[in-house]
Amino acid sequence: MTPAATPPLHARARRALLAAVLAGAGALGCTPSLGDPAELTVDGVRLRVELGAGDFNAGNEALVAWVRRSAEIVAAYYGGFPTARATIELRPGPGAGVQGGSTYANPDALIRVRVGREVTEAQLESDWVMVHEMTHLALPDVGPEHAWLSEGLATYVEGIARVQAGNRTEQDVWAEELRQMPRGLPQEGDQGLDHTHTWGRTYWGGAMFCLMADVDIRRRSHDAQGLQDAVRAIARVSGGLKSEWPIERVLATGDAAVGTTSLEDLYARMKDSAYAPELAALWRELGVTADGDAVRLSDAAPLADVRHAIMRGTKPRS
Ligand SMILES: [Zn+2]
């Protein structure tokens, strides 16, 4: 805060104009430089964006637009942004790109993301970090031994949520899963997801759990429900990351919402044993075939409908 009791007129006018821009009031010939922090509303949720001494080459407007887009993607996937308000702290640093983040929920939702001052608009447009971090807000705190669930879910949801919002292609997501999912398979000495805290098992082992759960829920419900419906219910009932829940309660809540025991069954199978699903068979059934660095998708595959349902997702509000 400055000691001045009343901001000068031009500052007030600039803030009013900024508010109009952030509210999407229409195209303007020029945009003012954004204040710090910037306040924006997404899906009824107040987001406070702290830009620090940003001085980003791309301009602060591009950074705020990226936060808004990411929040809209997550809100659409979950049928609402997972918290009532949140602070997004952007920490500028040397170089380019979005360089990683972390998410906290107590006492209030706070996401810190490191961003290079030379970040480009194209890097912001194709960024996964902000969506990943915002996704963490939707799951209760399940403790470090179950980090595979929070990291795996954020890894899995990021791609699908962005496809549903038109921010990423379906082929790109399947190609990444085809390429990366084997890193989630148990290696020698593995003792199951709850006891093997390697990078591969945490991120891609967790994502593999989510994919298998999604396929199972959709098969059992004849594509009427999916993991998306389960995690929406978990977010709604728990209030998300600010709640500490045992993993059993999280999974039971998700299963109850979709009328299956898919999550609990898979957890029993994977929590303390080196269960390795046959990924090659799963890709074949889903109709996902490697084609160089890309994939070909086949609608003749037995689970092609499941594959479509995963990416089509659940309607905005259930
Ligand atoms: Zn994460």
How does the SSE layout of this entry go?
Layout (H helix, E strand, L loop, with lengths): L8 H14 L15 E5 L2 E6 L9 H19 L6 E9 L4 E7 L5 E7 L4 H5 L3 H8 L10 H18 L5 H11 L18 H22 L6 H12 L8 H12 L3 H9 L8 H8 L1 E4 L2 E4 L6 H9 L6
Parallel strand pairs: 2-3, 3-5
Antiparallel strand pairs: 1-2, 4-5, 6-7
Helix pairs in contact: 2-4, 2-5, 4-5, 5-7, 7-10, 7-12, 8-9, 9-10
β-strand number: 7
Q: How can the largest sheet be summarized?
A: 5 strands, mixed
**Small molecules bound in the structure, each named once:** zinc ion
Mean pLDDT value: 89
Backbone CA Rg: 21 Å
Gap between N and C termini: 43 Å
Unreliable residue runs: 1-33
Strand line-up across the major sheet = 1-2-3-5-4
The overall number of domains is: 2
If helices are DSSP runs of H or I spanning 4 or more residues, what is the number of helices? 12
Structural class: alpha/beta
The share of residues in helices is 40-55%
Strand content: 5-15%
The ordered string of helix (H) and strand (E) elements is: HEEHEEEHHHHHHHHHEEH
Shape: globular
Written account of the structure:
There is one protein chain. This protein is an alpha/beta fold and 318 residues long. It folds into 2 domains: 16-24 and 32-136, no CATH class; 144-312, no CATH class. The chain has helices at 9-22, 60-78, 121-125, 129-136, 147-164, 170-180, 199-220, 227-238, 247-258, 262-270, 279-286, 304-312; strands at 38-42, 45-50, 85-93, 98-104, 110-116, 288-291, 294-297. The strands form 2 sheets. A 5-stranded mixed β-sheet has the order 1-2-3-5-4. Strands 6-7 form a two-stranded antiparallel sheet. It is globular, with a radius of gyration of 21 Å. The chain starts with 8 loop residues before the first helix and ends in a 6-residue tail after the last helix. The model is unreliable at 1-33 (pLDDT under 50). Zinc ion is lined by residues 132, 136, 151, 154.
